[in-house]
Amino acid sequence: MEVLLFLWISLAALLTAGANKANHDDEGIVINMLNASRLRMFVDELPNMPKVQGYDIKNGVPISKKLKIGMFQKKWKFHRDLPPTTVFAYGTSKRTATVPGPTIEAIHRVKTYVTWQNHLPKKHILPWDPTIPTAIPVSKKGIPTVVHLHGGIDEPESDGNSNSWFTVGFKERGPTWTQKTYRYHNFQQPGNLWYHDHAMGLTRVNLLAGLLGSYIIRHPDLEGPLGLPSGDEFDRTVVIFDRSFRTDGSIYMNSTGNNPSIHPQWQPEYFGDTIIVNGKAWPRLTVRRRKYRFRILNASNARFFRIFLSNGMRFIHVASDSAYNERPVVLKKLLLAPSEIADVVVDFSTSASDEVILVNDAPYHSQPMIQLTKSTEKS
Ligand SMILES: [Cu+2]
């Protein structure tokens, strides 16, 4: 029988342990901030986000498919000990919507059509900034959204221009809006893309609320011979981002600008103290002593991750973003900027230990941070 390993992914801010602290907002109201160091690491299992197939199979051949994917407000558990958080989530239904959203799987040269549907309520859950150019419906009701497939080579009408936003039921639409259904050609090389909200002035808050997900273009004829780990268990998308929370579980975003005397609300960047991987804070994963493929996306607003495996194992870097490398590169450390994707193979059969932490040591507000781990159990 194979030995099982736990891959504990803890991209954690190494915060000073302590009490939750109270902040004040601009009206002087007390905000009870969660101190992320109070959340126990490695208690939640790393989820595999649901998959949505962007093609049908007819007579054994993949053919194009039309999908409907909605945006819903719902509750999401980011950690066992954190109260449920109100989020905006993509999904084929409110019940199945997740943060991050489902992973869309497309096939090279087979078109995927998506009708993105806005089911969001009238008011945002985060403090959006009305003092910058922003999509604002005439009725002042509803949350403008539009979806951009990041890395996709598609026509402008399907590209999610910031001014092509729409509200619930396409009731109100931005000046460049043209169509309800987007066409993704999937004509480009196989690789990793991601989709996210892109509405003018609201992109930041809509992403922070949860509107983002992975998109894979596969090319079985080309990729089969590469012999990379495959199937849901061994080929996994890993979406990492940072958030801050209040003690009631809600997402916290400061609404005071960095230079409030110049601009009341503007902040160039968002940093959170809790690292979320596939929708869970510092999760863990049990792995077998074999090779795994991880398609790692940094979906943070501003944070960089420089990650390594605590027991000295290497990453075999096979692809980045939407293209394969000419040949694999073996790396000890991996630097990931916001929106960057690293597609790596990790061979746990080479592990000298039963646990490994995925550690992040990128500076963050002048503090060192993250971690990735692993542990074992005999089976
Ligand atoms: Cu993007």
Automatic annotation (TrEMBL):
<dbReference type="GO" id="GO:0016491">
    <property type="term" value="F:oxidoreductase activity"/>
</dbReference>
<dbReference type="Pfam" id="PF00394">
    <property type="entry name" value="Cu-oxidase"/>
</dbReference>
<dbReference type="Pfam" id="PF07732">
    <property type="entry name" value="Cu-oxidase_3"/>
</dbReference>
<dbReference type="GO" id="GO:0016036">
    <property type="term" value="P:cellular response to phosphate starvation"/>
</dbReference>
<feature type="domain" description="Plastocyanin-like">
    <location>
        <begin position="272"/>
        <end position="352"/>
    </location>
</feature>
<dbReference type="InterPro" id="IPR001117">
    <property type="entry name" value="Cu-oxidase_2nd"/>
</dbReference>
<keyword id="KW-0479">Metal-binding</keyword>
<dbReference type="GO" id="GO:0005507">
    <property type="term" value="F:copper ion binding"/>
</dbReference>
<protein>
    <submittedName>
        <fullName>Multicopper oxidase</fullName>
    </submittedName>
</protein>
<keyword id="KW-0186">Copper</keyword>
<keyword id="KW-0560">Oxidoreductase</keyword>
<keyword id="KW-0732">Signal</keyword>
<feature type="signal peptide">
    <location>
        <begin position="1"/>
        <end position="19"/>
    </location>
</feature>
<dbReference type="InterPro" id="IPR052152">
    <property type="entry name" value="LPR1/LPR2"/>
</dbReference>
<keyword id="KW-0325">Glycoprotein</keyword>
<dbReference type="InterPro" id="IPR008972">
    <property type="entry name" value="Cupredoxin"/>
</dbReference>
<dbReference type="InterPro" id="IPR011707">
    <property type="entry name" value="Cu-oxidase-like_N"/>
</dbReference>
<comment type="similarity">
    <text>Belongs to the multicopper oxidase family.</text>
</comment>
<feature type="domain" description="Plastocyanin-like">
    <location>
        <begin position="144"/>
        <end position="220"/>
    </location>
</feature>
